[in-house]
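FW: tagging you since you asked about this chain on Friday. Here's the raw sequence from the shared folder, copied in full. Didn't touch anything.
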Amino acid sequence: MSRSIRLFTFAAPSRFFALSGFLLPWLWLAAIGFALAGLYMGFFVAPTDATQGDSYRIIFVHVPAAWMSMVLYLVMAGWAVFGWAANARLASMVARALAPTGAMFTFLALWTGALWGKPTWGTWWVWDARLTSELILLFLYLGYMALVESIDDVRRADHAGALLALIGAINVPIIYFSVKWWNTLHQGATISMTAAPKMAATMLNAMLLMTIAFWAYSFAVVFMRTRAIVLERERQAQWVIDLAAREAKEVK
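HL: got it, structure written out here
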């Protein structure tokens, strides 16, 4: 009988490195496939909106990017705090790897929001509660990356970053509930767990396909970045030395 996989089987950097290397091609394939399907459905199959015309189609990028910006911050904060509390090296590495991807999605959400806002509101930017709190999220990502890179001692840097990420997590529910708590220009949620969707089925399907594509992309990029961090931090470990020797032999 095969031995069951324990909860922390892949917590060791060497095992994570092997697993992520196996998963990466499939994640990239999923990201590209779902993105192409979502973009095709969103830009060529979904009907034109009666009020906003074709300008609304930016939501197929904007909305999934905004979702990812918030979720990835919470995931980053969770891994950072877990790495701090449990002294788990890999968790802190994953937190560092998540930050640039989360910042990218936050910037993408702000940029596509501006492209959507110009024809809808008549301006590229307003100091709306939702927009302002999303901009603060971008600064939190950038602040986390700057903080952990500015401290030479890796352990102290991970602990300081975890504290900042934990405090910054307060901003995520503010982003989500801002349209309910304040009178904002930004429209409310079109998808809810307790109500029927407020959009056509093709629109919803295109948005869900793009969300899956963004998730697959996030896993792929974060795994690649984590692998690089693992190699940098574990460069004195025997398994990394053996891996480098095998790759050097294959090159020859």
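FW: The radius of gyration is 21 Å.
HL: agreed, and Residues 1-5 have pLDDT under 50 and may be disordered.
FW: great, closing this out.
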